[in-house]
Structures are given as structure tokens and as C-alpha cells.
Amino acid sequence: MALQLRMLGTTSDDGKCPTLYEDVASGDIVVQGYTVTDPEDVAQLANVLEGESFVRIPRELLTRFAPKE
């Protein structure tokens, strides 16, 4: 089933990236940010499963807009 995304907020001045969304059906959070691709950075990540990816976002995005529940 397709996600039903609701934008929670962004710290971007031009409204593009990074942005935080909530799937209204499941309550899951979707993060739009810059992909972490540097091999040295990726090597530090643990338990990476097939299909997973990683994005970098400002801490302020989570502290301002992440649900508190």
C-alpha cells in the first residue's frame, strides 16, 4: 500500500530538503535528507540490511518537528 505522507516540517529556507514526514496510516516517520555515500562514513554503520539507506539531516529538524509521543 502506498504511503500517506503528511509533511511535519523542514529546516530548509527554500522548502526543499531536509524535510520530515509522517505516514498517517502507520505513524512511521520518513526523512528526506542528503544521502550518506562516503565509504568511510558508511563503514561506521552497523547491521546494515539489504534495501536500507542512510540520510544526513540537521539535529534541529528532529528537535523541532519529530512527534514527541
Radius of gyration of CA atoms, rounded to a whole number? 13 Å
Kindly state the number of beta strands: 5
Task: Estimate nothing, just give the exact number of structural domains.
Answer: 1
Straight-line N-to-C gap: 25 Å
- Our count of helices gives 2
Task: Summarize model confidence as the mean pLDDT.
Answer: 91
Largest sheet: 3 strands, antiparallel
What sequence of helices (H) and strands (E) makes up the elements? EEEEHEH
Structural class category: alpha+beta
Task: Work out the strand percent.
Answer: 25-35%
Strands in their spatial order, largest beta sheet: 1-2-3
- Estimate the global geometry from the Cα principal axes: globular
Low-confidence stretches: none
Helix content: 10-25%
Fold and architecture overview:
The protein is an alpha+beta fold and 69 residues long. The chain has one domain (5-65). It is 16% helix and 28% strand. The chain contains 2 helices and 5 strands; from the N terminus they run E-E-E-E-H-E-H. Strand 2 (19-23) and strand 3 form a beta hairpin.
What tags apply to this protein structure?
alpha+beta; 69 residues; two-stranded antiparallel ribbon; 16% helix
In short:
With 69 residues, the protein is of the alpha+beta class. It has helices at 39-42, 59-65, and strands spanning 5-10, 19-23, 29-32, 34-35, 55-56.
